[in-house]
Amino acid sequence: MMRFKPRLKHQFNLIDLTALVDIIFLLLIFFIITSDMLPLKSLNIETPEIRQDSLPLTTQMVVFMNKERDIFVGKEKEKILLADLPTILRKQLLLLRKTTPHAKPTIVLNIDRYVDYGTFLKLFYEVQDLGLTIRLSYQKEIHAEI
């Protein structure tokens, strides 16, 4: 009787990772959509440059205006109308005074350099009505020495 040796190639059992990759992408998309991004990061605001360093702030309310003249307050992603800005800032001021009663709140205006002067003055006037210290956000000017 003849015995034949099987000449089969050894195959590795591969695990199908397609379902795992699909779930990982779904989780990634879920976390990206539900994450809380700051308007400062999501808005491309170019502030003007001046030669002075700014002082550190402890208690501040930040108002953003991008070049499309959209207004945002703090970490909120919601656009605000210029007429509603004083009411929203007063509410935030009350919350700040409850949480830190001894601090002096400051309003920081972070306005894109391409916003026209008239629009800037309207925003500044609305914020100035609160009677708080107003600071303007800017980038430090960098000089290349020759």
Question: What distinguishing features does this structure have?
Answer:
146 residues; four-stranded mixed sheet; alpha/beta
Radius of gyration: 28 Å
Side-by-side strand order of the widest sheet: 3-2-4-5
- Silhouette: elongated
- The level of helicity is 25-40%
Q: What is the structural class?
A: alpha/beta
Mean model confidence by pLDDT:
79
Low-pLDDT sequence parts: none
E-strand count: 6
Name the helix and strand elements from N-terminus to C-terminus, one letter apiece: HHEEEHEHEE
Distance between the termini: 96 Å
**Main sheet: strands, sense, barrel:** 4 strands, mixed
Strand content: 15-25%
DSSP helical segment count: 4
